[in-house]
## 1
Amino acid sequence: MYKQQRYELVESLRLKGISDELLLQAMIKVEREKFVSAIMKPNAYKDIALPIGYGQTISQPFTIAIMTEALQIKKGDKVLEIGTGSGYQAALLYQMSAKVYSIERHIDVYNEVLKKFEKLGIRVHCKCGDGTLGWDQYSPFDKIIVTAGSPSVPESLKKQLAINGRMVIPVGNMSSQTLKVLTKTAPEEFEIEDIPQFAFVPLIGREGWKE
Ligand code: SAM
């Protein structure tokens, strides 16, 4: 079911300039309808963000594609995701043969996504907590993706990124953010590219927005 819509979505992403084949093939395989509620399934292949409950969203496919492409994922990369949400982004990374570590702060969202991963056989290391502090125990990470908007780049995440590693994070105010793509060139040095105008739910935590 939805196979045709999935192909059409991927074709539309190609037309919008997404060219990472590992990612596009993963998007053909991962069934986005399994990451939204029954009532939202008919909208699963529209290029829009959708509510997943608890005031949270599954990000727009184009946004997910831009962020994932910017990471330049290679098979076997160790990837830290902040904001597990519906689990769709983590499922894509897993499908791309990355080793995925994902942190979600909202306990109900976390409990739901754990059940989903188990049911779908998706092996992702998950924890419930404040992702602004990263997951030091498993650092350094080759790639870090933050899926909620932050006032700045958390220092803990910068530290936990491997040399030559890449991080993508939306940074800005509560209503509009720029996607920052950081490449760590030395222990305290980063090259930074900006991709403007995105809107994410807030990253809430010690090194993010305060509750
Ligand atoms: N990656 C998700 C997906 O594929 O559905 C999209 C996630 S949604 C846009 C952002 C998520 O970040 C929400 O589930 C929210 O609860 C979570 N979040 C916000 N602040 C956080 C923090 N400090 N640590 C971990 N998760 C956080």
## 2
Amino acid sequence: MNINHVEHIGIAVRSLDKMIPYYEMLLGTPCYAIEEIKDQRVKTAFFKVGQTKIELLESTDPEGAIGKFIEKKGEGIHHIAFATDDTDKALQEAEKMGLELIDKTSRRGAEGLNIGFLHPKSTHGVLIEFCAK
Ligand code: CMX
């Protein structure tokens, strides 16, 4: 699937206003971008840690993915995103391996990346995202 590196780790939080200063203190680096992704029903905040980013995710709708996750499990790690050369190709290869796709084809996510998710039921409880420029 040509996975290059861990692009980001997504962390569900109740409040970006509260958690941005906390992560700035913890990581010793400023939040460099805040972006709302309307179709994902989230507001995101990004930090750089070497080649990998930390993406904080605040729900904008209790019925969205993050709203439901927080309601069920509380705050915490939500997904791991792997950088690939081509998200659509990675999704097709994952499907050939028998993994269940949430996205049959890639869609536009935060930072303009092409993203696609695998279902955690087929990846032993870890929500995996592929992303590519
Ligand atoms: N990690 C691991 N397991 C998860 C999970 C997560 N992040 N989110 C849900 N699950 C589990 C649920 O606990 C449930 O398990 P059980 O059946 O054992 O209780 C199972 O997955 C199915 O859950 P569900 O309630 O039937 O389905 P949901 O409506 O909660 O949807 C999911 C789950 C993963 C399909 C949905 O959240 C999704 O489509 N996610 C992809 C998109 C996304 O996460 N967007 C937000 C981030 C956007 C961004 O980064 O920009």
## 3
Amino acid sequence: MSHDLLPPAPLRLGGRPLPMVGPLRLYTCGVTPYAVTHLGHAATFVWVDVLARVARHASMEVVVTRNVTDVDDVLTEAARAANTPYDEYAAMQQYRFDHDMSALAVRRPDHEPRAHRHIGSVVRLAQALIEAGRAYEVDGTVFFDGTKGADGGDIATAHGLDQAAALVAIEEFGGSGLPGQRNPLDLPVWRASGDGDPAWPSPWGAGRPGWHAECTAMVLDTYGSSIDVHAGGRDLAFPHHAYEAAQAEAVTGVAPFARSWMHVGTVRINGEKMAKSTGNLVLVEDLLAQHRAAAVRLLILDRPWAGDWDYSPADLMAAEGRLDALYAAAGRRGDEAGEAEIMRALLDDLDVPRALGVAMESGGSAARTAVHVLGLG
Ligand code: ZN
């Protein structure tokens, strides 16, 4: 067997091998277009972009889908406050988001489903869940029964959470204390709409999709019953992804819904999560006014993807310096052997710090490979 026929290093994600035969089907929870993009959002999308670039560089076929949650109560409220029709408001915010993403060299996804085009699928999902005994309807709202997990326990237990922790997480996303809810773990697949809420017809009256169900429907509509990597910020793991997956598995009978999860670490400021609600924000457009986009990317990438981290301006300045060092390494005559080593590091759980270490040491084509694959050019 010649050396050329040796298979490339396998992709590992979250410490586990993810053998790929067919295309890598990747889905990321996108933004609710109601506010400008902050560094925490950007971190998720830059990491997903790098996963796709690394897989493509390793000759895998990759299909990237990133949804737009354009039906959401926070969006409705923001549009109302701005005195603009909500779809027009969403389109405007979407434009600003796309602008930030392309400035950060995040490639456009292959598919960009918008929640409002998948309403019919959410209605069919709700209907199928009722028929399967996994959901019930009260006054026009259809609740997914969170007390019945796939293995007999409830959905919180299935995700290693105790009831109290699960309820705190659910509360944060406004999913508790809804009228008709039999158990606080039961979350809406479909919600009855009041005056001023967006509304579509359904067998249960005028209503709108529940947030988790929107993603379930968009994944199933785009890929069928399962995907390879489901990505999103770590704060989406529960309840959003837990319900999204449980609802899909309950109607398709195919488990796991996602072979692998990529929950990207949270970006904090002074130890606190970045959030519009608290005003604790670093906006991408502000960083890009002062720094090279590649330096912002490097700041995001030069660490393990799953870990939480604190933003500091000093670290961004250091990333500027490290970027110059990387370019200098790429400009000198180098050691060819480093190239394969860089790809081995990146395929091994996207180990960017290790890949950069090799790039700096080897220089030349190895460093150029790192610049190219990490989108730092
Ligand atoms: Zn989602």
## 4
Amino acid sequence: MSKKIILLVIASIIGLLALSLVQAKLIQNTYQLRKEALIDRNSEILGKIGSYGTTIDSISDAISITFFKDLDGYSLQKLSKEKLMNRLRVINDSLNPLFISAYENVINAKHLKFDLKYHKMLQSIVLIDSLKTDTIFFDKKSKNFKLIGYDFENDDELRLGTSTWETNRTFDKKINGVLKKGSYDVVFKTINYMNMDQANTIILTEMKGLLVTSCCIFLFVIGLFYYSIKNLITQKKIADIKTDFINNITHELKTPLTTLSLATKMLKQQNKNVENKMFIATLGTIERQNVRLQKLIDQVLNNSLGYKEIVLKKENVSLNQFIHTVLDDFEISNTNTIVIQRNICIKNQELSIDRFYISTALLNILENAVKYGATTIIFFLKRTNNIELSIQDNGIGIAKKDLQSIFTKFYRVDNQNIHNVKGLGLGLYYSNQVVKAHDGKIHVESEKDKGTNFTIILPIN
Ligand code: ATP
Ligand code: MG
């Protein structure tokens, strides 16, 4: 596989991966949004639980009344921290079944399509009185002390939010038999969690359409990508086979053609005095056709070289002189068909080029102008940062759709209106390869029926 195709495959795979990542991120975001919406919907239901039934109110009251009494005892140092917390746990545990049955009544009345469980966890209890701030309980992750609700695994829970409850408590205390008022502030922090076993199933069902469409599009893109690359590799293989075949066949044809040419020469020589007109004419035809075939094969062989295979013999050439010589030679062989206007705007410019290759490249373009209907050629030679050579003709022009392809090996425009113009589609390919071998560039501008302008840019080195 050529380097270009490997790079293309790598770039496409990277593109595909990037696309998949973006897609995955979008799906994840949608999942997250839907999950939040589900939590919002359910936290609304759970938020109202307290106001649904008197049972739940009474349970909360019962817990807080008992706990505050214990807290009074703690503030008077009659109860230790551990005992206080143990007693809170015992009260909660004893009232929890009541809470759960009241909660289930509320939830069942809602006819939800899934199990919605709930628990309230204690995060901290802080007691503040005139003497000190006393942290009675603190559990940063709030995983250890369940106040009320169901037991469920931490993994499945969804956090609803934190609530802080701050209150001032006054109570009667007896000091040395005298009744006095005691007072403290207490701050409770709790965290509410809910659990929906089927949360994922619910969300994924909601997202079913999106997931299926994404998968289908993704599979389609992969299929398309696989098909395109496979096609590209097949095309490249066919092109390589074609090029190899042409190179081989032209080489193979050369030997019999040379033998044929020698044989004709010998026949001519040995039959110098024969006056059979038919014989002489046939021999002449064989010779001419042989020469024609040889020329065609040489053209294919010489003009098929890629720019990497061209070995340049560069020399410093006086540009003005070089160009005038090329144009003079061309004019001599096309005297009656073409007029060349020369606009040579530089003097004494030397350039390191391969004389043979550049002149052939220029002649290919000039010959094309004549072949494709031009009566006038305007030739420009100027110097910018580089050397620019332009060959502008007033021929039949090239349609936009063909402009990209005319430098491709064996490409010929389908000029149905000029049937007699023959060629192999190698001239411009060759010119382009020669210019590339000189580190230059070739541009073409053309308008159908108006003319064509080829510009060769060569670096000054
Ligand atoms: P070859 O040069 O190998 O004998 P060719 O002239 O057909 O054959 P190229 O010189 O590579 O091949 O040109 C490719 C095609 O570009 C031509 O078939 C022709 O249609 C078009 N073309 C090239 N030069 C011109 C031009 N000056 N005006 C109009 N069409 C052109
Ligand atoms: Mg040509």
